[in-house]
Amino acid sequence: MLDKIYRVLKRFNKRANIGHPDDAETYNKWLANKTTAIQEKKIQYRPLISVIMPVYNVSIEWLEKAINSVEKQSYTNWELCIVDDASTNKKIQDYLLSKKSEKIKVVLLEKNAHISEASNAALKQAEGEFIALLDHDDELTEDALYEVVKLLNRDPKLDLIYSDEDKKLLDGRRIYPAFKGGWNPEMIFSFMYIGHLGVYRKEIVDLIGGFRKGFEGAQDYDLLLRFTERTNRIAHIPRILYHWRMIPGSTAVEVDSKGYAYDRGRLAVLQSLQRRNLPCIHVDEDPNIRGNYIPIFKVNNSSRIFLAVFFNGDNNDSLQKKIRKLEKTITYTNYQMVIFTSHESLAQNNSDVVLINDNNILQCVLSEAVKCRASLITILDLDLSPITEKWLEKMIPYANRHDIAGVCGQVVSENNKIVYSGGYYCFTGKNLSIMYADYGDEHDATGYLGRVRRIQNTSIWFDKSLMIKTELLAEYLKSESEEYSMRDFLFYVLYKGKFNIYHPFIKFISTNHYSSACTYIDAPFVEKWKGRIPKTDQFINPNITYRDGKITLND
């Protein structure tokens, strides 16, 4: 039994460098430095939390640990609602009945109903304002519910709270922490990234009908998708509050152990996107990562695109060669292309070339976009070449959405190293730092928690291959600013509460060299945005950072 677990450990540790969260030694050292005694503060708002636990044919050893982890909660206003789904091992039912008390409710089903209906039976017993989901072989940390309620005291209107988690070996060792980012509304269509611990407002769970029969194996994912159609009052606790036990046969160890779950997850994503009135016609699954979904949207020819192409050279033959190469990649027909250059000779010799300087780039782009009545603008540096079929068609559905500012694909170098796969910002003292995640990794790398291959919201766009709305650029250029630039435009859209999209399945190859990070030190720019947007990027966990493109645990 242990052989399977150690094979998984060996496979993961091969890819984890020193400093990486997946490196067991690094994580254990980090834990030793972080583990401190719980120091609770008095809290006024003390809602009842109902812990929901469906049970079926689990080892009593692990079941006992799961229940004990609830009983040991430092926050005491909880109840545990257990439903046994007709386990064939009668010792399980005997044990559960022995645990029955005022705080622990136990229901024994006479016939196996499967996990969705067993979970709903537990929900019927729940009287709490919130429910917390706990698998029958996992454990909560002692302060898990306290941390949730502490956050609710700061913001009692929250409807969903999720935390970080790690995995626990049979011998008790802790490995593979999942340090998640803050609420990322796009990433939930890629996979069930919030995982454990998840605490949901019961009123909304009841409103949407609880867990759906037919989605067994993906029932939590389906619940999350339907739940977030009703609310965006969601918060993340960047602390590990949940231990997922690595038992052979569970998805914590064997990704393919419940293959049916991934098909049901795909269906849950499709239905959720359609209920949100997004034109999703199909959901693909990433061949490299099971359960990593890729929504496919219907695209008509109605969106007029202005393709703003930037050429940095001064050779006309080279320009024409690059344009012909680019045109071969375009299958979308409702577009107009204009070339922008700072070389006067090229502008004189070509009617479709516009002369620009450093101070009027965005103004010139907007002017030409308005002339051709384009609703969308695609900015593309000719040092980059699209290599994905229908690349424009894949960007359009995201760019047309009101909540999205910019859409970017993955950028790789000529030697297949990652140049751009999303990015983060951070104000540090008087500086503003930009980090490009997984810079320099192989183009087919998965990244931490599969991040490189997930369609997701990101704060930092790649302004050399970017699709935006014409009206958004016009709005920005009407705002007061001492400089109108792509970097200022980026922080303007963040200030406005817009999200950007990183889409790893839209790819570009770059012939230019870009750095893994940049730091803005000019005081006027940093001071302008410091305090207007959060100090740290909401999409990166405060326990991790990227140095030279590589992930590392913070001290």
Overall description:
This protein has 555 residues and is an alpha/beta fold. It has 3 domains: 1-36, no CATH class; 42-275, Alpha-Beta Complex (Spore Coat Polysaccharide Biosynthesis Protein SpsA, Chain A); 305-553, Spore Coat Polysaccharide Biosynthesis Protein SpsA, Chain A. The chain contains 16 helices and 26 strands. The strands form 6 sheets. Strands 1, 2, 3, 4, 5, 6, 7, 8 and 9 form a 9-stranded mixed beta sheet that branches. It has a 5-stranded mixed beta sheet with strand order 14-13-12-15-22, sandwiched between helices. Strands 16, 17, 18, 21 and 23 form a 5-stranded mixed beta sheet that branches. Helix 8 (219-227) runs parallel beside helix 9 and helix 12 (361-371) crosses helix 14 (470-478). The longest helix has 17 residues, at 259-275. Residues 1-14 have low confidence and may be disordered.
Low-confidence residue ranges? 1-14
Known CATH architecture of the largest domain: Alpha-Beta Complex
Strand content: 25-35%
Oligomer: single chain
Helix content: 25-40%
What is the H level of CATH, i.e. the homologous superfamily of the largest domain?
A: Spore Coat Polysaccharide Biosynthesis Protein SpsA, Chain A
Biggest β-sheet strands, sense, barrel: 9 strands, mixed
Number of H/I helices:
16
Radius of gyration: 26 Å
Structural class category: alpha/beta
Overall strand count: 26
Number of domains: 3
**CATH structural class of the largest domain:** Alpha Beta
Global outline: elongated
Q: Give the end-to-end Cα distance, rounded to a whole number of Å.
A: 35 Å
Classify the fold: give the CATH topology of the largest domain.
Answer: Spore Coat Polysaccharide Biosynthesis Protein SpsA, Chain A
Mean pLDDT: 91
